[in-house]
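Mods, move this if it's the wrong board.
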Amino acid sequence: MVSFIKEISFRWSDLDPNFHVRHSAYYDFGAQHRIEILEQLGLTLRVMQTQSFGPVLFREECVFRKELKLSDKIFIHTKTSKMKADASRWSIIHEFRKEDDTLCAVITVDGAWMDTKLRKLASPTPEIAIQALSIFPKSDDFIGL
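Not the wrong board. Structure tokens:
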């Protein structure tokens, strides 16, 4: 598998006054896709809640290349671009592509796992998080940290 791919549909509320997709909608779609992928890999919200950990982001950045409009058919491609061997730190990228494969935007998030009871980085990384991220597709330019 090269990446997780999902077709996304825009709503009227995703548009800005210029009638193209507003900047913050991209971040919302990226966050939703990450959670859906983790769920597919067995790392459900319930598992994270019972084991008292969850993802924490240090950086989230979007590079906008082509505007998106309400009627565009868009696919979000998600994969890891960097990760420590113990999955304690990672970077995930989301590429927004039109059906002709035109790259419209790229979101990059850098994150780790947080112990939700101690409110600090989880150490060691929960085993289920290591397993899920080891399955996660990697970018062509993947870097092991």
